[in-house]
Amino acid sequence: MTTYLRILAIVAVLGASLAGCADGAGKAVTSGSSGARAAATSNSAVVKAPPTLAPGPGGLTPVFKRGNPAAGKTVALTFDADMTADQGTRAARGERFDNPSLIALLRRLEVLSTVFMTGRWAEEYPTQAKAIGEDPLFEIANHSYSHHAFTADCYGLPRVDETKMNEDVQRAFTAFRDAGARNVMPYFRFPGGCYDDTALRALAPSKVTAVQWDVVSGDAFATDADAVAQQVLEGVKPGSLVVMHCTRSAAPVTEDAVQQIVPELRKQGYRFVKVSELMSH
Question: Does the pLDDT of residue 47 top 70, yes or no?
């Protein structure tokens, strides 16, 4: 996947004190800045291939679910930017499938994150897709073009035909390029997290690593930010990979939950990393 080999370097290990961050006015919220943006920016001049997993038995697409606990208190917050191929009319009527205030919060808190983006989302919000890809705090990964399921019986999602699965993934990568998005990783997240050997075999030509999670935030369609935050905080362990959403209409309380999750995990000594760093250990 030489198209995706020019990326930002894996973020350098930060200092032991990671409690601090800045609010929207630039004032210190707690003592000691995380320095995440500075660390990410300082490494941007180094170019190297992103870490991936070796193919599974029979050449199946490999699956990554969490990092190595021995690497210490690292955690990856990931955000799915969902939009199905047929939701354009809903967007035209004013429904918002983006969440710019959440992205702004992650920037203020200097939280390194991975955004799993659908191609249709990038087409609807190309300016945001480009801005996310240009920010050293973030990396973009593939969440399919259409957000249709790659297996049967996946939360009621329409299913992608087996012969079209790889094409759907490639169409998303094309949408990212067309939007001018940079820092795109060769990682793929199945819509709904649903996959089987048929899907893993179909995606083998794309040479992507499928990325799942070990902590479900429960933010999809949630109305209680406290409950979402509690579920994440109770589930996170060293090396955890958390799935959340960056879609205002379908995950309206995610921003409020993140405002609780980030300072509490930092207080516990956790360091936020992108999936690429979590996978490198």
Answer: no
